[in-house]
């Protein structure tokens, strides 16, 4: 490594003379013409030696030396005064300020070179000794086991952590026979690979190795680094005890395996439950169809004139028959929705539907079931939704029935369906001008068997909205309500975006579909 020398003198001829003496020796020379500049440059260059003139106008050499010695970083840089002052008092003052040596002007080339070589060498030796002492301290105190090995594989040094980690009772010196011999063959091969990588000046990956047997077994991670010496290449092996980490990893793998088994078991149970639910839905639908078909048959005969009816009974029979038709459609929709949930259709497939026609059809069905309602219906422009038509039917059939029930006593009962244009995801609303509700109780609307104060005079068990909320959530949507007492209520339903696979909880949504019957 080339030594850096800072030459400080306010006279150019003196700087040039020193440069001519030292340039041929290959030193890295830097120059300063004042004491103030020298202090700044010394901090920037960090020289191995400073050749310092004493007599300078702005800051003399003694002041420069005092300034540098007061700096913890600069205090160890050797300083040789080159001065015309030859009296004993000046020399004593220079030594007191921290000078390492003196040369008198004019100085001879041979004397200058001898002094410079000596001071630079001593400074280098001192720096090397300090570095070695620091390394030795780190080496001794390191928690990792450090082993130094030569190219033959012989141990030439080991720190206390290595002695503690890699020595088996009864205690033996950490030599080749009691070190590598205790590694399993596979681990020994990995250590040799790590050592070979270091000798080839590569950066080998850390490898996991096992040492010892039984309760004394060590699981370690080994790394390596090349440590060049004057006449040989040493390899530093660094071992970290990772036994607890390895145990934790094995425990985690076992836990994951158990969780996988548990998930598979729960999935199987869920599939069986879904199959049972599907069977139940089919049985319920079949059992409902039989008496319904009987009722529809008799009503059809009555409508066809098989039995004479008076004028007042004709519309009653027609309304009853219409109701059975709607009930039959509901049963078919319920069964179709349960079948699609059970088979996965509509869950993984892409859904996209224009809801206006579906909602209009549901409104007509509700009106046929409530012919005396007399509500005004407003249907606005609606966006495309990412759910199936059967899901929309179930949601709005319940919401329409709820709106009809609580707005029946309004002066001009009105139900409006529209879209929230500012919403990020498709969001529809259904608004009525009925009895409304206290906004502070909005969260209770979707709780099972919960009935607000404005609903005490109406029929029902408080289940409809809770089931709607479950169905909406099962398909990745969101439902909420706003209202005021005596003003009306608005229900908002946020749906998945069209063109994406809808998220669905099969068992929950299928259960809700059956319960709506």
Key traits:
disordered C terminus; five-stranded antiparallel β-sheet; Beta-Lactamase; five-stranded parallel β-sheet; single chain; alpha/beta; 17% strand; 517 residues; Rossmann fold; Helix Hairpins
Would you write up a description of this structure?
- This protein is of the alpha/beta class and 517 residues long.
- The chain has four domains: 4-138, Rossmann fold (3-Layer(aba) Sandwich), CATH 3.40.50.2300; 142-241, 2-Layer Sandwich (Beta-Lactamase); 256-343, Orthogonal Bundle (Helix Hairpins); 346-516, Heat Shock Protein 90, CATH 3.30.565.10.
- The protein has 14 helices and 15 strands.
- The longest helix has 61 residues, at 243-303.
- The two termini are 91 Å apart.
- The model is unreliable at 345-349 and 504-517 (pLDDT under 50).
In brief:
By secondary structure, this protein is an alpha/beta fold.
* Highest CATH level, the class of the largest domain: Alpha Beta
**How many β-strand stretches?**
15
CATH architecture of the largest domain: 2-Layer Sandwich
Strand content of the residues, in percent? 15-25%
Mean pLDDT: 79
General form: elongated
Please list the strands of the largest sheet in the order they lie side by side: 2-1-3-4-5
CATH T-level topology of the largest domain: Heat Shock Protein 90
- The overall number of domains is 4
CATH superfamily of the largest domain: Histidine kinase-like ATPase, C-terminal domain
Q: Report the structural category.
A: alpha/beta
């Amino acid at each position: 490594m080339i030594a850096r020398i800072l030459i400080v003198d306010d006279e150019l001829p003196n700087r040039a003379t020193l440069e001519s003496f030292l340039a041929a020796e290959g030193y890295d020379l830097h120059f300063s013409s004042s004491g103030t500049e020298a202090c700044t440059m010394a901090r920037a260059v960090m020289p191995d030696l400073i050749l310092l003139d004493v007599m300078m106008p702005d800051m003399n050499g003694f002041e420069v030396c005092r300034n540098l010695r007061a700096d913890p970083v600069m205090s160890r840089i050797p300083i040789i005064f080159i001065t015309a002052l030859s009296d004993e008092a000046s020399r004593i003052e220079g030594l007191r300020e921290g000078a390492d040596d003196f040369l008198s002007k004019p100085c001879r080339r041979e004397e200058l070179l001898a002094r410079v070589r000596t001071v630079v060498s001593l400074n280098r030796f001192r720096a090397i000794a300090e570095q070695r002492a620091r390394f030795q301290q780190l080496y001794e105190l390191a928690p990792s086991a450090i082993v130094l090995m030569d190219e033959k594989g012989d141990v030439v040094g080991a720190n206390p952590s290595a002695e503690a980690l890699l020595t088996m009772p009864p205690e033996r010196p950490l030599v080749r026979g009691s070190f590598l011999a205790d590694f399993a063959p596979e681990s020994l091969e990995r250590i040799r690979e790590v050592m070979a990588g270091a000798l080839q000046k590569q950066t080998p990956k850390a490898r996991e190795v096992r040492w010892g047997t039984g309760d004394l077994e060590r699981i370690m991670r080994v790394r390596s680094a090349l440590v060049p010496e004057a006449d040989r290449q040493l390899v530093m092996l660094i071992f970290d005890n990772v036994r607890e980490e390895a145990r934790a990893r094995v425990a985690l793998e076992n836990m994951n395996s158990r969780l996988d088994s548990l998930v598979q078991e729960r999935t199987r149970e869920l599939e069986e439950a879904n199959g049972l639910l599907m069977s139940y839905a089919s049985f319920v639908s079949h059992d409902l169809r039989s008496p319904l078909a009987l009722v529809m048959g008799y009503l059809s005969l009555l409508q066809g004139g098989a039995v004479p009816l008076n004028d007042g009974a004709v519309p009653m029979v027609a309304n009853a028959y219409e109701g059975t038709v709607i009930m039959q459609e509901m049963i078919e929709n319920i069964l179709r929705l349960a079948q699609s949930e059970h088979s996965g259709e509509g869950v993984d497939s892409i859904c996209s539907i224009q809801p206006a026609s579906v909602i209009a059809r549901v409104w007509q069905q509700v009106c046929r079931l409530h012919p005396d309602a007399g509500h005004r219906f407003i249907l606005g422009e609606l966006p495309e939704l990412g759910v199936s038509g059967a899901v929309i039917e179930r949601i709005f059939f319940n919401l329409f029935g709820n709106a009809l029930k609580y707005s029946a006593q309004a002066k001009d009962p009105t139900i409006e369906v529209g879209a929230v244009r500012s919403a990020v995801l498709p969001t529809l609303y259904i608004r009525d001008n009925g009895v409304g509700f206290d906004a502070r109780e909005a969260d209770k609307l979707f709780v099972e068997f919960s009935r607000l104060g404005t609903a005490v005079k109406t029929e029902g068990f408080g289940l409809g909205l809770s089931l709607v909320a479950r169905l909406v959530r099962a398909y990745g949507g969101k439902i909420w309500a706003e209202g005021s007492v005596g003003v009306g209520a608005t229900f908002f339903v946020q749906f998945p975006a069209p063109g994406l696979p809808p998220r669905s909880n099969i068992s929950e949504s299928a259960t809700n579909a059956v319960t709506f019957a």
